[in-house]
Specification:
2 copies of one chain form a homodimer. By secondary structure, chain A is an alpha/beta fold. Chain A has 5 helices and 5 strands. The radius of gyration of chain A is 16 Å and the shape is globular.
Chain lengths: ~140, ~140
């Protein structure tokens, strides 16, 4: 397979990684994704890795790179669908997916991106009320 | 890769086919998809084939089978992202993707499914005008 499709969902791009990413494919994905962000003005990227049994340092680095490129292009990246075993291996390997946000599945990822930029989703033009930033306990995760 | 991930978007399931589907993988996909339809009560299935260069009779038949299974489970199937060359080949081969609806991309597919069942998307609780509201008892159960 010569490329990984990038799907559009409103102003969010969705990528489902199902194949082993060797160098060329990973580079192609980075290129496709950044082109699509610019072309569509997308503000969010969701990368589903639920099909991956293994996330090694190469894939981990690629995810971080994609997140960095997207951020420069004003889009947030969320990695979703990580298997428990993958999470364990990542931590054991000392890979922390720097700068990459994660969510349980695509729906949680969508919600995360929506919450991050609620103003973009206010259809009537008036910015919605922002809850005070400290009440949502991100510290619940241990 | 031992399986193709099925992603949830609200009450719609999304499958992106990126790898060559041999028998086992296709059967597994049918099984996963029908299990997920029942588990989530999804009413729509979107299958993205934008990564496929070739849709032969095997894949065509599989898409038709998935659509038939989904329909029995009360879910509509839309195939999206077909390349022009694939469409030409399909017609030349005499494959018509019986019972499969198509759309240009994921967004069009989502819209198609929404238009097909507007009642499910009425957020304010009042059902939009339906021809015969009382003759569809199957939609009451969820």
């Amino acid at each position: 397979m010569e490329h990984i499709p990038v799907l559009s969902l409103g102003d969010i791009l969705l990528v489902s990684i199902q194949v082993d990413l060797e160098d060329q494919l990973a580079l192609r994905l980075q290129e496709d994704l950044s082109n699509r962000i610019v072309a569509t003005g997308a503000h969010g990227v969701i990368i589903d890795i639920s099909a991956l049994d293994i996330v090694d340092s190469f894939i981990g680095r690629m995810l971080s790179t994609i997140a960095s490129i997207s951020r420069v292009l004003d889009a947030e990246t969320v990695v979703v669908g990580m298997r428990p075993a993958v999470a364990i291996t990542l931590v054991e390997l000392g890979l922390s997916l720097n700068g990459v946000r994660t969510a349980l599945n695509v729906e949680h990822g969508l919600r995360l991106l929506r919450d991050a930029r609620p103003a973009l989703f206010a259809l009537d033009g008036e910015a919605p009320e922002q809850p005070e930033p400290d009440t949502t306990p991100a510290t619940v995760r241990d």
